[in-house]
Specification:
By secondary structure, the protein is mainly beta. The protein is built from 2 helices and 10 strands; from the N terminus they run E-E-E-E-H-H-E-E-E-E-E-E. A hairpin with an 8-residue loop joins strand 6 and strand 7. The longest helix has 11 residues. It starts with 11 loop residues before the first strand and ends with a strand.
Length: 161
Amino acid sequence: MLELGDLSPDVVLDVQIPLEDVVEVKDGKRRVMSKKFLPGYILLELDLPDIGWKSVCSAIRRIAGVTGFVGTNPSERPRPISSDEAKGLLRKSGEVKGEKQLRMKQTFSVGEKVKIIEGAFASFTGTIEEVNLEKNKLRVMVQIFGRSTPVEVDLLQVEKI
């Protein structure tokens, strides 16, 4: 657990560990798990004073496991990330409402053999022709009545062979 010790709640406004939901299909069952998407990093919302900021930063660096601030050296004042970067990180972790998308733990690539495990084409096998991660869809070429036919399926409806 992160111990902030003597740091004032007026200086450290918020502490976040960036987590995202990841979908894993195991034994035919779908599970949603939280996973760190920036392992080894924490997000701090600070209100650093103009005078005495070095002592605050030094106190943060003395916390067990903390090595420093990203992109600065100890003699420089830490630079904040842009508001767009912060919104993107918070949206990905679900802290800010928006288009939070579940990410698949398993990755697929064009040319791989897969078996469709759900839907109208369950038990068919085929080759991945296209991967669309934005929509979480795959285009799989399957043999139907002796002809190759493209079928669009959700990432959760297939498993690697």
